[in-house]
From TrEMBL:
Residues 195-336 form the Thioredoxin domain. The keyword Isomerase does not apply. Keywords: Signal. The keyword Aminoacyl-tRNA synthetase does not apply. Residues 23-60 are annotated as: Disordered. The lineage of its organism: Bacteria, Bacillati, Actinomycetota, Thermoleophilia, Solirubrobacterales. Residues 1-16 form the signal peptide. This is Thioredoxin domain-containing protein. InterPro entries: Thioredoxin-like_sf, Thioredoxin_domain. PROSITE patterns: PROKAR_LIPOPROTEIN, THIOREDOXIN_2. It comes from the Bacteria. It comes from Solirubrobacter ginsenosidimutans.
Amino acid sequence: MIRIASILLVCAALLAACGGGNDSAPPPNTDPVEQVPDTPGLRDAVREAQSPDPTSFPPVKGQTLEDIAGLVTSGPQAAVAGSVYTTGENRFAFGVIDADGKPIYGPSAIYVAPAPNQPAQGPFAAPADVLLTQARYRSKQAATETDPFAAIYATQVKFSAPGTWAVLVMTRSGGRLVGAPMRIQVKTKKQDTIPDVGESAPKVATDTLESLDGDKDLLDTRDPKTDMHSNFADAVGKKPVALLFATPQLCVSRVCGPVADIALQMKAKYGKRMTFIHQEVWADNKLNSALRPPLQAFHVETEPWLFVVDKGGKITARLEGSFGVDAFEKAVKSGL
C-alpha cells in the first residue's frame, strides 16, 4: 500500500480551505488576504505572517538547535505539509497549531540541524501563503468560511546530507516566540525518482471524458466538476501545462479541494497561455486502491502534486502537499 499523504494526517482536519465553481469570468487582481474570513484579528494576523523579518528571530551564532529551542515557549504543534525532501534546496511547508487545535498565525521561521545537539542553521523566514480562493472558484468539498485554517507557511531550505534532520518551527504570537520541534527524512537526489525541475515530463496520457467512456464521476470527484481534463500527452510540447494530481472528494489530507479550486482560479487568469489539467488519483475512485497510470508514471506516492511544464516539455516547478495562491501562481509563471 502506498503512503498517500501519510505525514499530512497530523493536520488532516485542519489544513483545509474554503472551496465553488464558476470559471467563466477572469479574476480581478485582488489581494488573497481579502478572501480570509473577516473575524476579529484574523486578516491582520495572516497579513503580518506574509512578511516575516529574518532579523526578528534569534541569530544562530554557533548555537545548537537545542540551544535555540530553549529561547522560545513550547506548546504549539507543527504539522509538515510534504513528504519528499532531498539533499540540496527544498520547499518546506508547514502549519502551526495551538493546544486547542486552532492555527497560529504570525511571522514564522524555521531552523534545521542534522541532530538537536548539533549547530543550527537558520533562521529561514517562512511567509504565509493564503489557501482561500475567490468565492466563485470554491468547491463544495472544501471547507466553509467558518473553518479557521486560512494559510500555509513555506520556505526554502538546503539540506547538506541525507538522513534524519531535526527542525524547529518558530512563530511570533501574542507578543512572544513559540516553538515546535519535528523531524523529517532527507533522501539523496538519486533516491528521488519523481521528475524534478529541469527534467523532461513523462509524456503520459491523462484521463479524459472520452477515455473514460463518458463517466463524469470517474473523471472528476470535484463538485461542481471542471473542464480541466484534456490529455496531457496531447498538450505537452505544444503549450505550457499545469498538471495537478488531486482527488477533491477522496483526499486523505483534505487539501486537494483547495488546490483544485486554486487551479480553477489560475485557469481563469492564465488559461489562454497555459493548459490546466486535473487528474484524479485512485483507480475506480476507491480509496487506497491502485494509483491511476499517470501518477505511476510520475512516481508520486502522496497527494496532491502540481507539475508545471513549459512549452518544450521541461518541468519548471513541482509542488507537493499544501500550497497556496502565491506558490501556485509563481509555479505557473515559471512555465510561461
